[in-house]
């Protein structure tokens, strides 16, 4: 990426410190340092502010980076699509195991309305749901580590298209909280779906 060098060169040309630039574009000095070190990438709004501050175009700031961004998006999109398919397949497998076990294992249990097959089916559903959640979490890590959301926004902006809706705002601001909420919601949804399907199968018998 060429942006880190462009930021540093333009900042030094104007005799500004990282803190000075950060103050002018409403970000922290740590954020500015992260951009100059290539650890993260500024979003479209920050690039607009930087271009105004440095009196250069966004094209001059990002230069060949857009091509690299598009290649990154294309490559990771294939990986994430495969992971999404795998996640969906695991969930379907869990549902199939749950229904099948319920159908063939009718021994009674101390749990009301639940046969041994029903309980085993719920356990199978949860077992399949866990790796599905792990795949979903890995997709989010790929997005974060490769700045895919930011890259999509910049790529769309440079092509004159409307930037994609920022559905990942929480994951970028508070990644730990976002991951915890995602895991909790996924686990809860898995248990609810498994329990509801088991009750439905019981009612249809």
Structural summary, described in words:
The chain is mainly alpha-helical and 205 residues long. The radius of gyration is 24 Å and the shape is elongated. The protein folds into 2 domains: 60 residues, Orthogonal Bundle (434 Repressor (Amino-terminal Domain)); 140 residues, no CATH class. The protein contains 10 helices and no strands. Helix 6 crosses helix 8 and helix 7 packs antiparallel against helix 10.
Q: What is the N-to-C succession of helices and strands?
A: HHHHHHHHHH
Derived structural class: mainly alpha
Largest sheet: none
Mean pLDDT: 78
Q: Which spans of ≥5 residues are poorly predicted at pLDDT below 50?
A: 166-173
Total of DSSP H or I helical runs spanning 4+ residues: 10
Number of domains: 2
Gross morphology: elongated
Rg measurement, Å: 24 Å
Distance between the termini: 62 Å
What percentage of amino acids are in beta strands?
A: under 5%
Estimate percent helicity.
over 70%
**What is the total tally of β strands?**
0
Please tag this protein with its features.
205 residues; mainly alpha; 434 Repressor (Amino-terminal Domain); elongated
Task: Summarize it.
With 205 residues, the protein is mostly helical. It folds into 2 domains: 3-62, 434 Repressor (Amino-terminal Domain); 65-204, no CATH class. It is built from 10 helices and no strands.
